[in-house]
Write a structure and sequence with these properties.
This protein has about 400 residues and is mainly α. Helix content is about 80%, strand content about 0%. It folds into two domains: about 180 residues, Up-down Bundle (Growth Hormone, Chain: A), CATH 1.20.1250; about 190 residues, Growth Hormone, Chain: A, CATH 1.20.1250. The two termini are about 15 Å apart. It is globular and about 50 Å long.
Length: about 400
């Protein structure tokens, strides 16, 4: 039974190292300025006069860059340490965003978007590897929950503020996003931390021989590959909020675009106030239990959309969906950090990020296509089945040795 003290929101955060709080602060600053990507299509069509098709190509190019960047950044962070990757990702992204308003032709926009994606998306796998480096195994779930808290607090500010700024000038969206990104990079540079030293020591051990487990190909890790398939299916369900969900709400249920925006607010508020205590209460769970329940709740949220006739059922679906999100994402990052060989944690995090990037590339397109071809109820029931398959697979993921020792103790 979970004690009252384990539900204290600060109990699970109290022992986190100073470096983790610096990273959370930098993340909050960076995400509070997230403005360009959510408004990229509007900028290209309204400000530059491009067609919707060309704007969609630009967004697709960003996705391709993210898919390429994730595994490369993961491997590079294993070689030189994750901290330098994060620092230069933020600084480079800020510089590229400042250059964006000066680019006007389609070819130049595509080239700059690709460069922006490659640089910006290299932050994610390095960041997740860095968190695993600076906290102990038992602190990883609350550490990843704190990181997501910083993300969601920032995202509750940036895109909302961008709407008001865009009404005055799209150029200021790029400037604001660039300034906050550069500020986040400066924060990581100004406060020295020790993860790079640890990564260098790990790399030295690898260079001196290392274990058979360390030098084996990641593709030979069947348990991890199985997990990647399961997390791709979960990502497929998750990213329906980018494509099928808004179309379903407006076209099928007759709800307004403002209602769709309100769902983001509900999701963010729940995460800000509930995710850390929820993860503190479930810290003793083995990973497969949290992963499977999170994936199942995604599936059940989608099933609620299948029977929705109005706003109430949609709200219920989003609440169920969000609880699944709060359980799954910290669990998944902690799981990958524990099954990865220490010297190749960045590589594993890169593959984990890649699985989500592929889901982002496939999920919204497939969902909207199915919605148009088969209608809302068959489409959402199909998404439910995919989520249920993912949950079933999550129950069968391999158990890390550190977790097995903790459970048996």
């Amino acid at each position: 039974m979970v004690s009252r003290s384990s539900l204290d929101i600060w109990k699970s955060l109290r022992g986190l190292p100073r470096d983790m709080w610096i990273l959370a602060a930098a993340t909050l600053v960076n995400r509070a300025g997230t403005m360009v990507l959510p408004f990229l299509v509007l900028y290209l069509t309204r400000e530059l006069g491009m067609s919707a098709a060309r704007a969609g190509i630009a967004l697709g190019v960003y996705g391709v860059g993210a898919m390429v960047s994730a595994p490369l950044a993961g491997r590079l962070s294993d070689r030189i340490g994750p901290l330098p990757i994060m620092q230069w990702s933020l600084i480079g992204t800020g510089i590229l965003l400042l250059a964006f308003p000066f680019v006007r032709t389609f070819g130049a926009v595509i080239a700059l978007t690709l460069a922006w994606s490659l640089v910006a998306e290299s932050f994610r796998p390095a960041n997740m590897a860095y968190i695993a480096d600076i906290v102990s195994p038992e602190q990883r779930k609350p550490a990843y929950a704190l990181f997501r808290l910083a993300i969601n607090l920032g995202m509750s500010i940036g895109p909302a503020a961008a709407g008001f700024i865009a009404a005055q000038s799209f150029t200021w969206i790029f400037i604001t996003d660039a300034v906050t990104t550069l500020a986040a990079g400066a924060l990581l540079i100004a406060f020295p931390v020790g993860a790079a030293t640890r990564a260098a020591a790990v790399n030295a051990r690898m260079g001196s021989g290392g274990s058979k487990e360390q030098v084996a190909s990641m593709l030979e890790d069947r348990g991890f590959f199985f997990f990647l398939i399961a997390i791709f299916l979960t990502g497929f369900v998750f990213f329906q909020h980018e494509g099928a969900l808004p179309l379903f709400l407006v076209n099928d249920l007759g709800l307004s675009p403002a209602f769709y925006g309100l769902l983001f607010t509900l999701n963010t508020v729940m995460i800000v106030f509930m995710e850390i205590p929820l993860n503190a209460a479930t810290a003793h769970w083995e990973h497969r239990r949290g992963l499977a329940l999170g994936a199942l709740l995604y599936a059940l949220g989608s099933a609620a959309f299948a029977v929705a006739a109005g706003a109430a059922a949609v709200f219920a679906g989003i609440i169920i969906w969000t609880v699944g999100e709060m359980l799954l994402f910290p669990q998944a990052a902690a799981y990958v950090s524990e099954i990865a060989p220490e010297s190749r944690r960045g590589e594993y995090m890169g593959a984990y990020t890649l699985a989500f990037n592929v889901a982002f590339a496939v999920g919204p397109w497939a969902g909207t296509a199915a919605l148009g071809a088969f209608g809302a109820r068959p489409m959402w029931l199909g998404v439910f089945v995919i989520g249920a398959i993912s949950a079933s697979m999550m129950m069968r993921v391999s158990t890390p040795q550190t977790e097995a020792a903790t459970v048996s103790a």
